[in-house]
Amino acid sequence: MTDGFLCGWRVVSEIDLPELVSWTGDDRIPDVAVRVAATPRQLDDLVHHDQFIQVAQDGAILLTVDGIATCLVRSPSEVIVTPHPGSHSDEIKLLLLGSVLGFLCHLRGLFPLHGACVEIDGWGLVLAGPSGAGKSTLAAHLINHGCGLVADDVSAIEIIDGVPHVWPAFPRLKLCRDAVHLVDFAGMELGPTSLIRDKFHHVPRDRPFSTTPVPLRAIAFLEQPAIDETDWLVQIGSAPAIMAKLAAEVFRPTVAKALGRTRDLFVMQGAVARCVPVYQWRRKFDLTAMCMWTDRIKALATE
Amino acid sequence: MAVTLVDTIVRRDGLFSTDVSGRQVILNPQGEYYVGLDAIGSKIWERIESPMPVARLCEELVAAYEGERASIEGDLLRFLDGILAQKLIVQI
Q1: How many angstroms separate the Cα of A34 from the Cα of each of A71, A107, A205?
Q2: How many pairs of residues across A and B have Cβ atoms under 8 Å apart?
Q3: Residues 6+ away with beta carbon under 8 Å from B89
């Protein structure tokens, strides 16, 4: 049983989630309860369904990954999990701390941006981009250079008093095998278990994990350069371009649309576009390039 | 059909628009892309939340901005044709 913190919520889970920091907040009723129980194969009154996901008219979401688990997010406060025979708990946790986290963000009115977030002098910097763009690797590199970890794959944004903040998720980074060799992990503890094949968990150990939301100061969208193209970083000045970039990296967008969040997300995108400088950063995905850019990138969050 | 001074126009119902640093950004009706308006376009957008005769809109712009009436009128009609083509407004 876990009684932990996730994005500001008290999460009580029958599935052990050691990735979460322990709940030390008030004595509230859990914001999210994760139970192990039977789940239906099919929801009624579907507004969306695809190979893995069903979304019902009442907002319930059913995620089924054969061989791993079925997760029913019945409400913003209740998740029911049915492990499939032979599944590994790490694989189930991957679903809970990935897709299900994204679903909960949508159900709870947050803006889940597909990106890692680090904290620099009290400010948040989100490294956004598609899978494989090097978000986590870069976050690991910045953590080795004095930054704090806020979130890995999903940055949960809430507009607080008009200012976008990122809620801390959990103090783990998920890195691919190649990335492990790219980054000097002097400041990190290498996780003894892999969450999925060829993925390694790393726990920053030099500083405590803060549970306070950090005001978002900058977003950098990561891109790979073309062959022979030099690295560059440019602030996106066009508001429609910023809105489009943000929309492209909403985590689990089809579920958001099925839940009727299009207007809600649009409003939040506008708040982010108003308040937060957004950059397009095209750079080579290697250690030399990361070292060359370290100070410049850290400066985005403080200048 | 091109917008003329005898038309009355209004924003298309159900569109999402927001102010980003004084400039309106609008999601097109199909939800495919975002349209950004410049400062004057954003002012016009604010004025057509309710049905607005184009002639009256033109008079307001002539009063608010320096420039030849014919030039302002031409710019306004071109702008309205543009956002009509984007299906952001309707003629009523």
Answers
A1: 10, 15, 27
A2: 41
A3: B9, B10, B11, B12, B48, B80, B83
The verdict on B14 touching A (C-beta cutoff 8 Å) is no
Identify the DSSP state of A104.
H
Q: What's the gap in Å between the CA of A262 and the closest CA on chain B? A: 9
Structure tokens at B15: 């569109």
CA dihedral (A110, A78, A95, B32) positive or negative: negative
Count of CB atoms within 10 A of residue A263's CB?
A: 11
Q: Considering only CA atoms, which of B8, B4, B5, B11 is closest in space to residue B86?
A: B11
B1: confidence class by pLDDT, cuts 50, 70, 90: confident
Q: What confidence score (pLDDT) does residue B3 get?
A: 94
Helices (H) and strands (E) in chain A, counts: 8, 20
Amino acid, single-letter form, for residue A16 = D
A235 against A206, higher pLDDT:
A235
